[in-house]
Write a structure and sequence with these properties.
The chain has about 130 residues and is an alpha/beta fold. Helices cover about 40% and strands about 20% of the residues. It has 5 helices and 5 strands, in the order βαβααααβββ. Helix 4 (about 70-75) crosses helix 5. It is globular. It starts with a strand and ends in a 15-residue tail after the last strand. The relative contact order is 0.20.
């Protein structure tokens, strides 16, 4: 079964979080929401989802490496550089680092990313290009 992470370009929307938590506390049934990651702007999105980071995500999903060093071997890169990229992905919630003895094992729970990129600003007016 495919597990999908939805990514959107906008500030994190937590408007219904308090209502959902109160409903859970009251014992009400709450429909699970789709797992969604909000990235604040296109510049950050471009940095986080650049090709070297996508290559790491693909290698983690396909090979389930037991450590950063093993992941580095899979992508033929230096471990310190891979660790830096994996930490960036972890900071954005795209990778979880699990303790594996003295090593850290990179883990992702999804195998597909669905991205929503708006082509207009919130006010409905398009962005102006520099001529």
């Amino acid at each position: 079964m495919t597990q999908t992470l939805h990514v959107q370009i906008k500030s994190a929307d937590r408007s219904d979080l308090e209502d959902r938590l109160e409903a859970i506390d009251a014992g009400e049934d709450v429909d699970p929401s789709e797992p969604t990651l909000s990235i604040e702007n296109l510049e950050t999105f471009g940095r986080v989802f650049r090709s070297i980071n996508l290559e790491l995500l693909e290698a983690i999903v396909e090979h389930e490496p037991g450590s950063i060093r093993e992941l580095a071997r899979l992508v033929d890169r230096n471990p310190p550089e891979v660790l830096e990229n994996v930490n960036e992905l972890a900071d954005h919630g795209l990778v979880e680092l699990k303790e594996n003895g003295r090593a850290k094992r990179p883990v992702v729970w999804y195998d597909e990313i669905n991205v929503d990129i708006p082509l207009t600003t919130g006010s409905g007016q398009g962005r102006k290009a520099n001529a």
